[in-house]
Description:
By secondary structure, the protein is mostly helical. It is built from eleven helices and no strands.
Amino acid sequence: MTGQDPRTARSSQALIDAMTRILDSSTSPELNVSDMVKEAGVSRPTFYQHFGDMKALVQAATQDRLNATFNATQPITLNTSWAQFARTNFRLMLAEMNKNRTFYINVLRGVGGYTATNDVLEMIANKILDRSPMGPVLRTRKSPVSPLEQAHFMSAGVVWLLARRILDESTEIHPEELADHVGILLLHSAGVSQEDFNTAYPEYAN
Protein backbone atom coordinates (compact mmCIF):
# COMPACT_ATOMS: atom_id res chain seq x y z
CA MET A 1 0.00 0.00 0.00
CA THR A 2 1.41 3.39 -0.92
CA GLY A 3 1.06 6.51 1.21
CA GLN A 4 -0.86 9.64 0.31
CA ASP A 5 0.65 11.71 -2.47
CA PRO A 6 2.55 14.57 -0.74
CA ARG A 7 1.08 17.07 -3.20
CA THR A 8 -2.42 15.91 -2.31
CA ALA A 9 -1.68 16.21 1.40
CA ARG A 10 -0.23 19.71 0.91
CA SER A 11 -3.24 20.99 -1.02
CA SER A 12 -5.63 19.52 1.55
CA GLN A 13 -3.71 21.15 4.40
CA ALA A 14 -3.52 24.42 2.49
CA LEU A 15 -7.32 24.51 2.35
CA ILE A 16 -7.62 23.66 6.05
CA ASP A 17 -5.11 26.39 6.93
CA ALA A 18 -6.94 28.89 4.72
CA MET A 19 -10.26 28.10 6.39
CA THR A 20 -8.65 28.45 9.82
CA ARG A 21 -7.23 31.87 8.95
CA ILE A 22 -10.59 33.06 7.68
CA LEU A 23 -12.47 31.78 10.74
CA ASP A 24 -9.84 33.43 12.95
CA SER A 25 -10.04 36.77 11.18
CA SER A 26 -13.41 38.25 12.14
CA THR A 27 -16.84 37.32 13.43
CA SER A 28 -19.29 36.09 10.76
CA PRO A 29 -16.89 36.02 7.79
CA GLU A 30 -18.19 35.35 4.29
CA LEU A 31 -17.42 31.75 3.33
CA ASN A 32 -17.38 30.99 -0.37
CA VAL A 33 -15.38 28.68 -2.57
CA SER A 34 -13.87 31.44 -4.72
CA ASP A 35 -12.31 33.27 -1.75
CA MET A 36 -11.27 29.99 -0.15
CA VAL A 37 -9.31 28.65 -3.12
CA LYS A 38 -7.69 32.06 -3.62
CA GLU A 39 -6.62 32.15 0.03
CA ALA A 40 -5.30 28.58 -0.17
CA GLY A 41 -3.63 29.01 -3.55
CA VAL A 42 -5.37 25.99 -5.09
CA SER A 43 -7.91 25.45 -7.86
CA ARG A 44 -11.67 24.97 -7.50
CA PRO A 45 -11.43 21.35 -8.74
CA THR A 46 -8.87 20.70 -5.99
CA PHE A 47 -11.29 22.04 -3.38
CA TYR A 48 -14.12 19.79 -4.56
CA GLN A 49 -11.77 16.82 -4.85
CA HIS A 50 -10.80 17.11 -1.19
CA PHE A 51 -13.90 18.39 0.58
CA GLY A 52 -16.92 18.61 -1.70
CA ASP A 53 -18.52 21.49 0.18
CA MET A 54 -17.79 24.21 2.74
CA LYS A 55 -19.32 22.26 5.61
CA ALA A 56 -16.78 19.46 5.17
CA LEU A 57 -13.91 21.96 5.13
CA VAL A 58 -15.18 23.71 8.27
CA GLN A 59 -15.34 20.30 9.96
CA ALA A 60 -11.79 19.47 8.88
CA ALA A 61 -10.46 22.82 10.13
CA THR A 62 -12.29 22.41 13.43
CA GLN A 63 -11.01 18.86 13.85
CA ASP A 64 -7.48 20.04 13.10
CA ARG A 65 -7.64 22.73 15.77
CA LEU A 66 -9.33 20.47 18.31
CA ASN A 67 -6.68 17.81 17.82
CA ALA A 68 -3.96 20.37 18.51
CA THR A 69 -5.81 21.53 21.63
CA PHE A 70 -6.43 18.05 23.03
CA ASN A 71 -2.94 16.83 22.15
CA ALA A 72 -1.54 19.55 24.42
CA THR A 73 -3.17 17.97 27.47
CA GLN A 74 -1.19 15.90 29.92
CA PRO A 75 -1.52 12.11 30.39
CA ILE A 76 -2.47 10.81 33.80
CA THR A 77 -0.01 8.94 35.99
CA LEU A 78 -0.75 6.30 38.60
CA ASN A 79 -1.21 8.79 41.44
CA THR A 80 -2.96 11.56 39.52
CA SER A 81 -6.03 12.80 41.39
CA TRP A 82 -9.19 14.01 39.67
CA ALA A 83 -8.55 17.60 40.78
CA GLN A 84 -4.98 17.49 39.41
CA PHE A 85 -6.18 16.01 36.13
CA ALA A 86 -9.07 18.45 35.72
CA ARG A 87 -7.13 21.56 36.68
CA THR A 88 -4.15 20.77 34.51
CA ASN A 89 -5.98 19.59 31.40
CA PHE A 90 -9.11 21.72 31.47
CA ARG A 91 -7.04 24.87 32.01
CA LEU A 92 -4.91 24.02 28.99
CA MET A 93 -7.97 23.28 26.84
CA LEU A 94 -9.89 26.34 27.96
CA ALA A 95 -6.91 28.65 27.52
CA GLU A 96 -6.53 27.42 23.93
CA MET A 97 -10.25 27.80 23.24
CA ASN A 98 -10.23 31.28 24.72
CA LYS A 99 -7.22 32.26 22.59
CA ASN A 100 -9.10 31.02 19.50
CA ARG A 101 -12.51 32.28 20.61
CA THR A 102 -13.32 34.06 17.32
CA PHE A 103 -12.70 30.80 15.46
CA TYR A 104 -15.08 28.83 17.70
CA ILE A 105 -17.75 31.54 17.62
CA ASN A 106 -17.73 31.40 13.82
CA VAL A 107 -17.87 27.60 13.80
CA LEU A 108 -20.67 27.34 16.37
CA ARG A 109 -22.78 30.01 14.69
CA GLY A 110 -22.10 28.84 11.16
CA VAL A 111 -22.51 25.87 8.90
CA GLY A 112 -20.31 23.56 10.99
CA GLY A 113 -21.93 24.19 14.36
CA TYR A 114 -23.65 20.86 14.94
CA THR A 115 -20.76 18.80 13.62
CA ALA A 116 -18.19 20.76 15.62
CA THR A 117 -20.24 20.37 18.80
CA ASN A 118 -20.44 16.64 18.18
CA ASP A 119 -16.68 16.41 17.64
CA VAL A 120 -15.94 18.22 20.91
CA LEU A 121 -18.46 16.03 22.74
CA GLU A 122 -16.83 12.86 21.43
CA MET A 123 -13.32 14.01 22.31
CA ILE A 124 -14.23 15.00 25.87
CA ALA A 125 -16.16 11.75 26.41
CA ASN A 126 -13.16 9.72 25.27
CA LYS A 127 -10.83 11.70 27.51
CA ILE A 128 -13.12 11.18 30.51
CA LEU A 129 -13.37 7.46 29.86
CA ASP A 130 -9.89 6.57 28.62
CA ARG A 131 -7.53 9.22 29.96
CA SER A 132 -8.89 10.46 33.28
CA PRO A 133 -9.06 9.08 36.85
CA MET A 134 -12.84 8.94 36.41
CA GLY A 135 -12.58 6.33 33.65
CA PRO A 136 -11.91 3.30 35.89
CA VAL A 137 -14.80 4.33 38.15
CA LEU A 138 -17.26 4.48 35.25
CA ARG A 139 -15.99 1.19 33.84
CA THR A 140 -16.29 -0.78 37.07
CA ARG A 141 -19.51 0.67 38.47
CA LYS A 142 -22.58 -1.53 38.01
CA SER A 143 -25.09 0.40 35.94
CA PRO A 144 -27.86 -0.28 33.40
CA VAL A 145 -26.13 2.14 31.01
CA SER A 146 -22.71 1.63 29.44
CA PRO A 147 -19.61 3.56 30.58
CA LEU A 148 -19.44 5.20 27.14
CA GLU A 149 -23.05 6.39 27.40
CA GLN A 150 -22.33 7.86 30.83
CA ALA A 151 -19.24 9.62 29.48
CA HIS A 152 -21.22 11.00 26.53
CA PHE A 153 -23.93 12.32 28.86
CA MET A 154 -21.37 14.04 31.09
CA SER A 155 -19.51 15.40 28.09
CA ALA A 156 -22.73 16.86 26.63
CA GLY A 157 -23.13 19.01 29.73
CA VAL A 158 -19.56 20.29 29.41
CA VAL A 159 -20.03 21.10 25.72
CA TRP A 160 -23.29 22.96 26.42
CA LEU A 161 -21.58 25.01 29.13
CA LEU A 162 -18.55 25.82 26.96
CA ALA A 163 -20.68 26.75 23.95
CA ARG A 164 -22.73 29.18 26.06
CA ARG A 165 -19.59 30.79 27.51
CA ILE A 166 -17.85 31.04 24.13
CA LEU A 167 -20.88 32.49 22.32
CA ASP A 168 -21.57 35.07 25.02
CA GLU A 169 -19.03 37.61 23.78
CA SER A 170 -19.80 39.96 26.68
CA THR A 171 -18.48 37.42 29.17
CA GLU A 172 -14.75 37.03 29.69
CA ILE A 173 -13.51 33.44 29.96
CA HIS A 174 -11.23 32.75 32.92
CA PRO A 175 -9.67 29.30 32.24
CA GLU A 176 -8.62 28.65 35.86
CA GLU A 177 -12.04 29.44 37.31
CA LEU A 178 -13.95 27.63 34.55
CA ALA A 179 -11.68 24.57 34.78
CA ASP A 180 -12.61 24.12 38.46
CA HIS A 181 -16.28 24.67 37.62
CA VAL A 182 -16.21 21.99 34.92
CA GLY A 183 -14.25 19.58 37.09
CA ILE A 184 -16.67 19.94 39.98
CA LEU A 185 -19.72 19.51 37.74
CA LEU A 186 -18.29 16.33 36.25
CA LEU A 187 -17.41 14.94 39.66
CA HIS A 188 -20.94 15.53 40.93
CA SER A 189 -22.36 14.05 37.71
CA ALA A 190 -20.39 10.89 38.38
CA GLY A 191 -22.29 10.49 41.65
CA VAL A 192 -19.33 10.58 44.03
CA SER A 193 -19.92 10.68 47.76
CA GLN A 194 -19.54 13.89 49.75
CA GLU A 195 -16.43 12.38 51.33
CA ASP A 196 -14.83 11.74 47.93
CA PHE A 197 -15.75 15.23 46.77
CA ASN A 198 -14.19 16.75 49.89
CA THR A 199 -11.04 14.76 49.24
CA ALA A 200 -10.85 15.97 45.63
CA TYR A 201 -11.66 19.61 46.39
CA PRO A 202 -11.00 20.25 50.11
CA GLU A 203 -11.21 24.02 49.62
CA TYR A 204 -14.87 23.63 48.60
CA ALA A 205 -15.79 21.22 51.38
CA ASN A 206 -18.62 22.22 53.73
